[in-house]
Every structure is written in C-alpha cells, then in structure tokens.
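User: I've been trying to design a sequence by hand for this structure and keep getting stuck. Would you show me what you'd pick, starting by listing the structure so we're on the same page?

Assistant: Good idea, let's start from the same input. This is the structure you sent:
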C-alpha cells in the first residue's frame, strides 16, 4: 500500500566519539554516531520537522543505541558533538510544504486584492462588454453585461439564468443568456458595488 502522508528521516550528521564504555559489551571503545532529522511529509513533500534522533553504534559489539539508552557521560559527549560548528541546523527543505502553502496563500490573497482593485476601477470607468457578477438572491448569483455607456447611464443585458455557486458562474456567462436590456444609472451601479451586491467585474483585455 502506498501512503501519501507520514514521517521520514534524513541523515544530518555522522561522526565518532572515542574512549567510552559500551553498556552492552562493557568494552572501552569508540562509537560511530548518526543524527537524523525526522519530518512529516504529504505526497512525499516535506512539510515540517518533528524532532532530531541520535543513534550510536559500538565499534566492538556493533549494537546500536538510541541516545536515551546510553549512560549520562556518553550522552554528554554526544551533546558536545552536536554543538560543534554551531550545532545541527534543520535544513530549510524540511519546511517545503509549509513554504508552498504560505506562497499559495499569499498568491491567492494578492490575486483577490488585485481583483477587488480592478473591479472598483471598472465600475467607476465602465466599458462596453464588461460583465458584472452579482448576488441575485441569497445563495444565488448571476451576471449582467454592459451594452452601451453614456455620461450618466448604462444599457445592460441581464442574464436570464442564475446559479447557486460562485465558482461555477462562468457556466451561465454565455451569449444566449443575455436577452433583456435595461437602463441603469452609473450612480446606482456604483452604489450596488459599494453595497457588495456586485462582487466582481470582468473585463476582456
């Protein structure tokens, strides 16, 4: 079975400590140690680090110990090794998922903000062909399209269809749905926008 989420570990440092007594074979030996960074992943993308794990192997009996299983004096030696050269730093790539989520959130916020700025500009300076997305009723949405622009008023075609999902509203923004023409003052159109009844204006570039 393939798991798309879970935890993995990556080697951060290898080294050796000398002149220690192995708690298993009771021999004065050197030990090879490895420090691993454990991290959570989703779809193989590292999201955030969880903890660091230190393992040490006796060069004589080859038994492997977790740091917590070793005597205090050996643990102290391992801690000193970890602090050399400024300590073991967590690689930035272990935060890849969080960075990606943050980047997407920032991009979405920027796009939303830019859409709001553009919509406000388009309402104040309407052009033929602009499409207005609005709340037609509670939980329902529709569109209207500008056909003519004069100094004080607009001739619009109202969409005869409405839909209950903002994300699918483009499905009803088609030519055959615009049949009936109405006149509305530019002042009233701006008022609808300021009251958040119009939530977006799209203009073909």
């Amino acid at each position: 079975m393939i798991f798309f989420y879970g935890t993995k570990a990556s080697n951060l440092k290898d080294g050796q400590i000398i002149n220690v007594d192995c708690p298993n074979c009771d021999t004065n030996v050197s030990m090879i140690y490895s420090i691993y960074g454990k991290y959570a992943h989703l779809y193989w993308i590292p999201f955030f680090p969880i903890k660091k794990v230190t393992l040490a192997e006796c060069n004589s009996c080859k038994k492997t110990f977790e740091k917590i299983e070793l005597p205090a004096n050996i643990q102290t030696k391992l801690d000193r090794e970890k602090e050399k050269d400024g300590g073991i730093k967590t690689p930035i790539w272990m935060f890849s998922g969080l960075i990606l989520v943050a980047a997407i959130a920032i991009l979405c916020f920027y796009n939303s903000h830019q859409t709001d700025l553009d919509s406000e500009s388009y309402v104040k300076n309407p052009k033929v062909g602009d499409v207005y997305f609005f709340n037609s009723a509670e939980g329902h949405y529709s569109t209207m399209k500008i056909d003519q622009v004069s100094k004080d008023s607009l001739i619009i075609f109202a969409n005869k269809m409405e839909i209950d999902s903002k994300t699918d509203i483009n499905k009803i923004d088609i030519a055959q749905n615009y049949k009936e023409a109405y006149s509305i003052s530019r002042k009233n159109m701006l008022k609808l926008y300021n009251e958040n009844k119009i939530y977006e204006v799209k203009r073909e570039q």
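That's my pick for every position. To get oriented when you compare it with your attempt: The chain has two domains: 5-90, 117-202. The CA atoms of residues 45 and 97 lie 6 Å apart.
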